[in-house]
Design a protein that fits this description.
- By secondary structure, this protein is mainly alpha-helical.
- Helix content is about 60%, strand content about 5%.
- The chain contains four helices and two strands, in the order αβααβα.
- Strands 1-2 form a two-stranded antiparallel ribbon.
- It is globular and about 55 Å long.
- The model has no long low-confidence stretch (mean pLDDT about 90).
Length: about 90
């Protein structure tokens, strides 16, 4: 999982050029269909990554590293779940 998270972090850093994201870039990186969907989920206590504020700036931010780890975790958990559901193919 660490290798996948590191690769995702590199890709996100290359794409967005910043170690932290907010707004439209954050919604894109996390796969939300719109910024409105992102904001709705951010207001709930179930948001999957740590949000933080920066003094003197508006909005809430997320580290690319945290997004990459969350995405890798989602992928690994999905893969394990799919393998558990498959009948033995030997």
């Amino acid at each position: 999982m660490e290798a996948l998270a590191a690769e995702l972090e590199r890709e996100l850093m290359h794409r967005y050029g910043s170690p932290l994201l907010t707004g439209k870039k954050l919604s894109e990186a996390m796969g939300y269909p719109s910024i409105h969907a992102l904001r709705k989920h951010m207001s709930q206590s179930t948001f999957p990554v740590a949000l933080f504020t920066i003094q003197g700036r508006r909005g809430r931010y997320v580290l690319v590293k945290d997004i990459a780890f969350w995405l890798a975790k989602q992928r690994i958990e999905h893969q394990c779940h799919v393998e558990e559901e498959r009948p033995n193919e030997r």
